[in-house]
Amino acid sequence: MSETHIVHVDKLTSILESRRVFCDAVMANRPELGTTIGMGRIKQRRLHLGLQSRPGLSVGECVPFYFCPRSVMLYLLYMANHPDLTYRGGQDPIVHLELDLHRLVEWADSHHRRWAFTLSNAGSHYFEDRNDLAELNQINWDAIRARDFRDGAIKDGKQAEFLVETDVPWKLVERIGTKSQATAQRALAAIQNVQHQPLVEIKTDWYY
After folding, report:
1. In what order do the strands lie in the sheet with 94-100?
2. Integer-rounded Cα radius of gyration of the chain
3. Which end of the chain, N or C, is surrounded by fewer C-beta atoms within 10 Å?
4. What is the pLDDT of residue 84?
5. Distance (Å, rounded) from C-alpha 153 to C-alpha 165?
């Protein structure tokens, strides 16, 4: 089972310098390197949204992953018309970092990183979260796979997230998915001098 984390391709340089993908709580105290996507107001809210299954840990203190490409967030970036978005560069420069769920959990458990997953949008005021992989069947997988999410319940279920405390090592990234050859070339250039070089692949079906 795979998970994806989306970033602007020009963020790869800073990720590779630290060999880590950091959560928003850490990034708030680091120099701004590369283009930030997402909504500032929701990022701030996530810093104060606690996880019931992991007392004392907030959503914003975790690196977020989606259970699918073509996320609702990517759609908002594609449309570039949401009033809370400051980034207006569209989806082409956005890359998907793909990781294997079970490898990620194994790493987190062995490095004392708490993890959890939500059943819906972790940026909302109400969501349920779990910390037992046996409960993954509680996720609405039909919503995760849905291409049409105009229905509110499907839209909310599609936004389920997997969350890992603080940071995730670059070495766990197995593939970088891009929309275009141009972005793939930028990703290849970014990783050319590092030891761990994931497969870079054009995945147009991961985009709108």
Report:
1. 129-130, 115-118, 161-165, 62-66, 2-8, 94-100, 175-178, 199-202
2. 16
3. N
4. 83
5. 27
